[in-house]
Design a protein that fits this description.
By secondary structure, this protein is an alpha+beta fold. It folds into 2 domains: 115 residues, 3-Layer(aba) Sandwich (Rossmann fold), CATH 3.40.50.10330; 180 residues, Tumour Suppressor Smad4 (Sandwich), CATH 2.60.200.40. The protein is built from 9 helices and 16 strands. Strands 5, 6, 7, 8, 9, 12, 13, 14, 15 and 16 form a 10-stranded antiparallel beta sheet that branches. The protein has a 4-stranded parallel beta sheet with strand order 2-1-3-4, with helices on both faces. Strand 8 and strand 9 form a beta hairpin. The longest helix has 18 residues. It is elongated and about 65 Å long. The protein starts with a strand and ends in a 23-residue tail after the last strand.
C-alpha cells in the first residue's frame, strides 16, 4: 500500500523549556501509521508559511507543532496550496486559545492520537485584507499582549505572563496614554460609527486567555465570527467595571458591544496597529474582513463546537449604539466560497 506523505512543521521555540518538542517525538508516536514525514523546523517569522508553500503540494497532510502564531503561519501556507490538504495541530504554545476551543488535548501523545484517529472537522478561516487568520484579529490595548510579552517570560510563566502583563500594565496604559479611535464599522447588521478602545474579531471561546465567550454561543464552522467592541472609558473605575463585566461575560451593548458577522469593513481616521492570532500585523487604516466557511479540514474530535452541515443564518444581537447609521446597502451575509485562489481577493 502506498504510504501517505506528511509535512511536519515545528517551531522549536514554542512552549516552556521543559516541554519543548523534538520533531522525532512526533515521528516516533506515529511510526505505526502509513505516513512518511518531511520534517522542517522554523527559524524565524514567516518561515512556516514559506515551508508549507514550498513542500505542501507534494504532501497528503500538514502537521503544525507550535503556538497560535505558528498555526497562523501554517494556515497562510495551506490556504495558498493548489490542493486542499487536512491540517493537524500539536499545540505547544503558552496560551493555546485555539486548541482549547477545539478541544485539542495537550501533550504529544494525545495530540497525535487525534491525528491518527483521522476524524476532521471543517473549520472557518478569517480573511483580513490579503492575509488569513485562524482565530482572532484585534487592535487596541490588550491585543498586543503576545508580541509585547518577552519570550523568556512566556517560557517561565506560560499563560500567567499574559495575565500579569494585562493586569499590571494594560489597564492603566489604556486610560493614561491611549485615546479611543474613531471607527466606521460596516457589518451584516448595518453600520456602527463611534469611538472605541478595542476591537476583536474572533472564532474562539477565548481571546488572549482574558476575554471569554460562552461555548454554547461559539461555533467554529457556522460561517460567522464574533465581534467585541469596547467604547471609550472615562476613568479607572469605569475600566475596572468593564473588566468585571468581561469576567462575567456580561456584554451590555453599551460599553461592550457583542455581535456576529460573516464579513465587515472597518475604516479608521489614521492607520492603527493590528494583531492576527497574537502576532503583529502592521498599521492599517482600511480593513476588509470576511469569513471563509469550512475552508480547512482540521484533525479534531467530534465536538459541540462544530455544527457540521450548512452554515447557520447570521445572528445579530443589536448593539445599543450611541451613533448608528442606517446602511445604504447591507454587507452581503453570504459566506465566501471555500475555494480560494493562491492569492486571496478582498471584497469591495
Amino acid at each position: 500500500m502506498k504510504k501517505r506523505k506528511a509535512l511536519l512543521v515545528v517551531n522549536p521555540c514554542s512552549g516552556k523549556n521543559k516541554s519543548r518538542l523534538r520533531p522525532e517525538e512526533v515521528v516516533e508516536k506515529m511510526n505505526d501509521t502509513d505516513i512518511d514525514f518531511i520534517v522542517k523546523e522554523t527559524t524565524g517569522p514567516g518561515d512556516a508559511t514559506q515551508i508549507v508553500k514550498d513542500h505542501g503540494d507534494d504532501c497528503d497532510l500538514v502537521i503544525c507543532c507550535g503556538g497560535d502564531g505558528t498555526f497562523n503561519e501554517t494556515i497562510n501556507g495551506v490556504m495558498r496550496l493548489e490542493k486542499r490538504v487536512p491540517l493537524g495541530y500539536i499545540p505547544m504554545g503558552s496560551t493555546n486559545d485555539l486548541a482549547s476551543t477545539m478541544c485539542l488535548p495537550a501533550g504529544v501523545d494525545k495530540a497525535t492520537d487525534i491525528i491518527k484517529d483521522g476524524h476532521t472537522n471543517g473549520y472557518d478561516i478569517g480573511l483580513f485584507n490579503n492575509r488569513y487568520f485562524s482565530y482572532v484579529a484585534s487592535f487596541g490595548p490588550g491585543s498586543d499582549l503576545s508580541y509585547n510579552t518577552s519570550q523568556k517570560l512566556k517560557n517561565q510563566f506560560g499563560h500567567n505572563a499574559y495575565v500579569i502583563y494585562a493586569v499590571f500594565f494594560q489597564l492603566f496604559h489604556m486610560l493614561s496614554q491611549v485615546k479611543p479611535k474613531h471607527i466606521v464599522f460596516e457589518y451584516d447588521g448595518g453600520v456602527i460609527e463611534d469611538d472605541f478602545f478595542f476591537c476583536a474579531i474572533s472564532n474562539s471561546t477565548s481571546v488572549g486567555g482574558v476575554f471569554k465567550y460562552d461555548r454554547d454561543d461559539v461555533k467554529l464552522d457556522d460561517g460567522l465570527f464574533e465581534v467585541l467592541l469596547v467604547r471609550k472609558l472615562r476613568n479607572p473605575l469605569e475600566a475596572v467595571g468593564m473588566f468585571r463585566k468581561i469576567q462575567k461575560r456580561d456584554y451590555d451593548g453599551d460599553t461592550l458591544l457583542y455581535f456576529k458577522t460573516s464579513r465587515a469593513r472597518l475604516t479608521f481616521d489614521e492607520p492603527e496597529a493590528w494583531t492576527l492570532d497574537g502576532e503583529y500585523a502592521g498599521e492599517i487604516k482600511d480593513i476588509r474582513f470576511s469569513v471563509l466557511s469550512k475552508a480547512i479540514d482540521i484533525y479534531s474530535p467530534e465536538s459541540s463546537m462544530f455544527i457540521g452541515g450548512e452554515p447557520q443564518p447570521a445572528f445579530v444581537r443589536e448593539p445599543k449604539a450611541k451613533k448608528k447609521k442606517k446602511a445604504d446597502g447591507e454587507v452581503n451575509s453570504e459566506s465566501e466560497n471555500t475555494k480560494q485562489e493562491k492569492e486571496p481577493e478582498t471584497f469591495s
